[in-house]
Amino acid sequence: MSRKRFKTRFARSQAVSNCKITPEHLARDAIVYIRQSTPHQVVNNLESKRRQYGLVEREQALGWNDVQVIDDDLGRSANGDSTRHGFEKLLARICEGRGGIIVSIEASRLARNGREWHTLLEFCGFTNCLIADENQIYDPRQPDDRLVLGMKGAMREMGLSILHQRWRNQKTKSTPGRVVWNCSHWLSKIRPK
Fold first, then answer.
1. What is the pLDDT at residue 170?
2. Which of 17, 37, 77, 108 is catalytic?
3. What is the pLDDT of residue 145?
4. Cα–Cα distance, 66 to 64 (Å, whole number)
5. Which of 140, 141, 165 has its CA nearest to residue 152?
6. What is the Cα–Cα distance from 27 to 158, expressed in whole angstroms?
7. Which of 43, 45, 70, 102 has the most CB atoms at less than 10 Å from its CB?
8. Is 108 tagged catalytic?
9. How far apart are the C-alpha atoms of 49 and 60, rounded to whole Å?
């Protein structure tokens, strides 16, 4: 695709997204949800952190004066064992009707599993809160947007399931005395002493 056609498609996509934003949304807070799964990512993936905090400027450019940042979950894994206080704070603000839009680098990363994802979609739809990522603004009350958001959540959950399955298979195939973890975020070899 040529650069000119891409810019035209992107501009058209932005115009459609912007027409979803109403004065009612702008009267409420824009909430930027920032998270990285491990302390290692927080220290070493500075570009990701910069891009996430950069979403504040994007929301201001779209018309929000009050942009709240929730970054309580930086360095916290999304596995089932840990409590994500930032996510709980996000849900509370939505339920109180204070959120006009929730923004994340990738919309499906807002929740860690299907139950949380669909709960978030229900709350946003009920309180008329938009969801946005780097590329698009979604209105969970519109059937087409709801379908896309549902698919994004399902694809993310399937991707995590495949990673867990590969991890378990790799663990059972290891030779005695040496375990190699072949997950992208675990780049170390663990050897018993």
1. 72
2. 37
3. 93
4. 6
5. 140
6. 36
7. 102
8. no
9. 18
By CB atoms closer than 10 A (0-12, 13-18, 19+), residue 181 is middle
**Residues listed for the chain:** 193
Averages of pLDDT over each 10 residues, the chain, 193 residues: 49 59 95 79 76 90 92 69 81 94 87 84 95 92 92 78 72 57 48 47
Measuring CA to CA, how many Å separate 21 from each of 98, 107, 142? 15, 17, 13
Taking the CA atoms of 134, 144, 70 and 115 in sequence, report the sign of the dihedral they define.
negative
Q: What is the pLDDT of residue 175?
A: 55
Token pair belonging to 171: 């663990």
The DSSP bridge partners found for residue 36 are 74
Cα-Cα-Cα-Cα torsion 129, 105, 14, 125, nearest 10 degrees, comes to -20
**What is the pTM for the complete model shown?**
0.72
What is residue 92's predicted lDDT score, i.e. its pLDDT? 94
Residue type, 42: V
Q: Which residues pair with 74 in a beta bridge?
A: 36
